[in-house]
């Protein structure tokens, strides 16, 4: 297998070298198909890690350009080793920027009060007010929950958004 192709897939996906090699062998060197295989494997890996405890992490503060919107995000992971990586900090920044832009009110549908769910177009309403159900601002094809699952696969640890607060100049904290 061509090492440059493995290296390119690894840079694109963040997956381990052996996982990239295996996916490329399965697809006869087709990098797009290999990427799809890695995504599917990553999602199943994320599902396995979901129940694991997340007691480490960081509080990330993001102030949007112009200083009129700010976000505090608590992003948790399993170890302080992962929490200190640049990739984890970048993940926190991306999610915080998304929160600043999209103004979600809840992390997941399970947090919504029952009366909030009644009598509305469920899919549209969930994507407007639940962070995990929203299309990611950097890639509208991917929901935040899938972006987070990709990060779980990349870091090899359970990662979860514990809480956030969004401030906007002239408004109450949201």
TrEMBL record:
Naming one, the record's GO cellular component terms include: cytoplasm
State the compartments where it is located. Cytoplasm
Q: Which terms does the record give in the GO molecular function aspect?
A: translation elongation factor activity
> What keywords were assigned to this record?
Cytoplasm, Elongation factor, Protein biosynthesis
Database matches in CDD domains:
UBA_EF-Ts
Q: Where is this region: Involved in Mg(2+) ion dislocation from EF-Tu?
A: 79-82
Indicate the segments forming the Translation elongation factor EFTs/EF1B dimerisation domain, all copies: 54-116, 123-170
InterPro entries xref list:
EF-Ts_dimer_sf, Transl_elong_EFTs/EF1B, Transl_elong_EFTs/EF1B_dimer, Transl_elong_Ts_CS, UBA-like_sf
Q: Which HAMAP family match?
A: EF_Ts (MF_00050)
What family is it from?
A: Belongs to the EF-Ts family.
Q: What does this protein do?
A: Associates with the EF-Tu.GDP complex and induces the exchange of GDP to GTP. It remains bound to the aminoacyl-tRNA.EF-Tu.GTP complex up to the GTP hydrolysis stage on the ribosome.
- Name assigned to this protein: Elongation factor Ts
Organism whose genome encodes this protein: candidate division NPL-UPA2 bacterium Unc8
Q: What is the lineage of its organism?
A: Bacteria
């Amino acid at each position: 297998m061509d090492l440059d192709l493995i290296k390119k897939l690894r840079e694109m996906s963040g997956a381990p070298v052996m996982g990239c090699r295996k996916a490329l062998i399965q697809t006869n060197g087709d990098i797009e198909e290999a990427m799809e295989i890695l995504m599917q494997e990553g999602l199943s890996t994320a599902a396995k890690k979901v129940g694991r405890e997340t007691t480490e992490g960081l509080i990330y503060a993001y102030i949007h350009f112009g200083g009129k919107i700010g976000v505090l995000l608590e992003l948790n992971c399993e170890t302080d080793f992962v929490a200190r990586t640049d990739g984890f900090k970048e993940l926190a920044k991306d999610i915080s920027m998304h929160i600043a832009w999209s103004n979600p009110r809840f992390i997941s549908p399970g947090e919504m009060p029952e009366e909030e769910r009644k009598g509305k177009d469920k899919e549209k309403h969930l994507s407007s007010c639940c962070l995990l159900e929203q299309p990611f601002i950097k890639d509208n094809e991917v929901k935040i929950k899938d972006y987070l699952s990709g990060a779980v696969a990349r870091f090899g640890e359970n990662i979860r958004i514990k809480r956030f607060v969004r401030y906007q100049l002239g408004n109450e904290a949201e």
